[in-house]
Amino acid sequence: QVQLAESGGGLVQPGGSLRLSCKASGSIFSINTMGWYRQAPGKERELVALITGTYGTTYAESVKGRFTISRDVAEKLVYLQMDSLKPEDTAVYFCYSRNRGGTDYWGLGTQVTVSS
Q1: Using DSSP, how many helices (H) and how many strands (E) does the chain show?
Q2: Which distant-in-sequence residues (6+ apart) come within 8 Å of 100 by Cβ?
Q3: Burial 38-72 (b: 16+ CB within 10 A, else e)
Q4: Are 33 and 98 in contact (CB under 8 A)?
Q5: Which of 6, 39, 84, 108 is most deeply packed, by most CB within 10 A?
Q6: What is the pLDDT, as a whole number, of residue 100?
Q7: Across the 116 residues of the chain, what is the mean pLDDT of every consecutive 10-residue run?
Q8: What CA–CA distance (Å, rounded) separates 66 from 62?
Q9: What pLDDT, on a 0 to 100 scale, did the predictor assign at position 74?
């Protein structure tokens, strides 16, 4: 089992920045890919960014050039630096991991609100 705990959400004005963090614990030796998804009210959960064990990255088109995902393997952390935030980025952001056996794990989520 893997447990994921997010932090760093909050309220920010349009054009501002936030940094989300996710700490993994439990059977962390089996973790391969980590990343972030988000879910806005009334919408389906969608991919934001992923980072593999070899540091390959994938981003949603809507966040390319504004968000940056990074990973500290030793500290079992994954980060999401969010710059130039827009109101449409408002959502609950979920940390995600997949282990080498293909099992997915999710954090409980952290709220990000972009509003003036």
Answers
A1: 0, 11
A2: 30, 32
A3: beeeeeeeeebbbbeeeeeeebeeebeeebebebe
A4: yes
A5: 6
A6: 84
A7: 93 98 85 93 96 94 98 89 98 94 93 97
A8: 9
A9: 80
